[in-house]
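Progress note, sequence design subtask.
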């Protein structure tokens, strides 16, 4: 496990996340998943936040989109609150792909393309370039979900940013 991942896990635990290892999904498993379930007045009910980590030797846009979608579906399957999203329940999933090689097109895609939309839920792809020590994530604020995107970016920096070079 890399120092960056160890530091990220420690910050998540300190913020009240439970770390789940080898979480089963779709015939395979995700090695590391952090989950926090709590009532949040600003989310108008219960909020379940997931950080799903995976390592890739190389990464392109199609692989990132597929991983992000799988991470979101995994989060939906492993949420603790039985209410449907939108009924005093929301789920936010940060899909973190740590990689040794990410091409420019994938960096631009993650930074500029609006993440997939879900009802009372969010799917937020993040790339960590292990060689450069840089994070790539959506930098804009879309009309849909505008109230939440500054918070998403803040969480990415809070839990994943230290240890990454600016």
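Output:
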């Amino acid at each position: 496990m890399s120092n960056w991942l160890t530091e990220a896990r420690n910050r998540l635990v300190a913020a009240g996340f439970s770390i789940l290892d080898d979480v089963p999904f779709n015939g395979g498993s995700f090695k590391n998943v952090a989950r926090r379930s709590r009532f949040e007045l600003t989310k108008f009910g219960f909020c379940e936040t997931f950080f799903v980590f995976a390592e890739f030797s190389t990464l392109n846009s199609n692989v990132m989109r597929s991983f992000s979608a799988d991470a979101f579906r995994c989060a939906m399957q492993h949420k603790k609150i039985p209410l449907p999203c939108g009924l005093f329940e929301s789920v936010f999933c940060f899909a973190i792909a740590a990689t040794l090689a990410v091409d420019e097109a994938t960096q631009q895609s993650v930074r500029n393309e609006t993440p997939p939309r879900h009802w009372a839920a969010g799917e937020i792809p993040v790339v960590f370039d292990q060689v450069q020590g840089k994070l790539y994530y959506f930098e804009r604020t879309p009309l849909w979900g505008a109230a939440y995107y500054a918070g998403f970016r803040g969480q990415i920096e809070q839990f994943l940013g230290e240890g990454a070079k600016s």
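The mean pLDDT is 91. Work on this subtask will continue into the next period as scheduled.
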